[in-house]
Design goal:
Oligomer: single chain
Distance between the termini: 30 Å
CATH topology: endopeptidase fold (from Nostoc punctiforme)
Structural class: alpha+beta
CATH superfamily: endopeptidase domain like (from Nostoc punctiforme)
Radius of gyration: 14 Å
Length: 153
């Protein structure tokens, strides 16, 4: 990854729950997929995380200028810089899951639940949009890490 980076400061100090994250992320369902997108014209998987953080006033570091295909572990390093690691069995709605679609971690989305069933809410390049779908194969075997936003109680 290379390119522009921006740090955001918190907008408010109210406690945040995972449900707040899921509610905000669901507002983006149907939005167009766009590489490095960060707004209404479209988002990619990282862009979805960024726009949700912006809307909730979560401080974050945004890095742009990355390639469409991961070639290393920089994604995990960026997440480790700002998020708290979570053991996969302890992940809960609102947490961020990271997946490897190739050799390297290259995709991320929010864990959600619908009718008690784990789902993945993410911006997917092949489907060209933000969607929420059951967290089943092949996603289950592609999971590499889970992270929680530090401000979440």
């Amino acid at each position: 990854m290379h390119g522009e980076s921006m740090d955001r400061e918190p907008v408010h100090d109210a406690p945040m729950r995972g449900d707040d994250i899921v509610t905000e992320a669901r507002r983006w369902i149907g939005a167009r997929w766009r590489h490095q997108g960060r707004g209404p014209a479209g988002v990619d998987c990282i862009g979805l995380l960024i726009v949700v953080a912006d809307a909730l006033g979560v401080p974050h570091h945004d890095v742009t200028g990355y390639d469409r295909r991961a070639t290393g572990t920089r994604l995990l390093a960026e997440f480790a810089r700002a998020l708290n690691p979570v053991a996969m069995p302890d992940a809960r709605p609102g947490d961020i899951l990271v997946f490897a679609e190739t050799s390297y971690p290259c995709h991320a989305g929010f864990l959600t639940k619908r009718h008690g069933v784990p789902h993945l809410l993410h911006a997917h390049a092949l489907r060209r949009c933000v969607l929420e779908e059951p967290l089943i194969e092949p996603w289950l075997s592609r999971r590499r890490a889970a992270w929680r936003i530090p401000e979440v109680v």
